[in-house]
Amino acid sequence: MAGEPVNVNEFEELARQALPKMYYDFFAGGSEDQYTLKENTEAFRRITIRPRMLVDVSKIDMSTVILGNKTSAPIIVAPTSSHQLAHSEGEVATARGAAACNVIMGLAFTSTCTVEEVASSCNAAFKRNILELMVRKAESNGFRAIILTADTPRLGKKEADIKNKMIAPRLGNFEGLISTEVVSAKDSTTEAYAAETLDPSFCWKDIAWLKSVTKLPILIKGILTSEDAIKAIEAGVAGIIVSNHGARQLDCTPATISVLEEVVHAVQDKVPVFFDGGIRRGTDIFKALALGAKAVLIGRPVIYGLATKGESGVKQVIEMLKNELEQTMALAGCCNVNDITRSHVKTEKESFLSRM
Question: Residues near 36 by Cβ (< 8 Å), separated by ≥ 6?
């Protein structure tokens, strides 16, 4: 591709060229037939924006407050695994890029850089599956929240990883806790790591235990139904992230944008609802906010920026999305994020009903 990328999608092609096939497939791929992976992005195209004209948009303010933390835009870098497969500086470079853009970053428990390394480079939110030692380590290193991933009782079947015999990287947070030199004769070594780190018995009642070992607010990630949203509220979480794990777990689940409003209605403003899955444009962010999300999480595009240009690539991806969101807000007649309302979008169902 000639010249500099002008949108986030073009970073994916640059990352494909820069990374070994095994690593590109690891980041880009979804589970099984990848139906949900395709739907996560395609579903946005079936939602249209209803702009307002003759609004004074000479000043646009994208800033918002997330769990008490002011951020420059309703964007969170999603907790994703193994950044050192994309760039030698790994999550440290990602964290610096996020900090430079004044947005929040989530750190995965499967990060290749340690909690301490990332904490020393910036301030960020934090993702932890249930090991008490890691939760306490996150708290002691100044992280602001715990993200509990609810959709990984076991690892989704990623056939590209199996074919590539994907080799899992060293996971710094697990040193001294489990073997970090797992060798598996079956499938990929990522499955061997999963067998040692995922707890299939973890359930709703265990959230009370997690709350007992940390004072940090707990967000739950992986909610796709009103039923589970209500259970999450009853369990006392501080926020809900509507997510299908980037289509890497159960295939044939709905696109997250198609169930966002269902979860928002079930929550009834009791806690903030965040959105994860398929964001590639500022218009996508606008649509998610209009359907009730407090902020959106960005996963693969950040990885593609990291793979292409390291820290500067991360910054470039985030700034592209911020600039596109600002442009969308101006053209839609919204001066700040609170001006973005449900009336600014029309879903596929609404479009169908209007033609009847």
Answer: 30, 244, 247, 250, 251, 252, 253, 254, 255
* In the block, residue with structure tokens 């990623």: 158
Please answer whether residues 302 and 317 qualify as being in contact, where contact means their C-beta atoms are separated by less than 8 angstroms.
Answer: yes
Could you tell me which of 250, 252, 294 has the C-alpha nearest to residue 276? 294
Distances, alpha carbon 10 to alpha carbons 34, 44, 298, 320, in Å: 21, 18, 15, 11
CA distances from 182 to 154, 169, 190 (A): 17, 10, 9
Give average pLDDT by consecutive 10-residue segment, the chain, 356 residues: 88 97 95 96 97 97 96 97 94 96 92 87 52 81 91 87 80 57 52 66 90 93 98 98 95 97 98 98 98 98 98 98 98 98 94 72
Q: How far is CA 284 from CA 15, 34, 98, 322, in A?
A: 22, 20, 19, 11
Q: Where are the beta strands (DSSP E) in the chain?
A: 48-49, 64-66, 69-71, 75-77, 104-105, 126-127, 146-149, 218-223, 239-242, 273-276, 296-298, 345-346
Catalytically annotated residues: 245
Distances (CA, A) of 57 to 67, 71, 285, 329, 336: 27, 21, 18, 8, 9
Q: Are 202 and 222 in contact (CB under 8 A)?
A: no
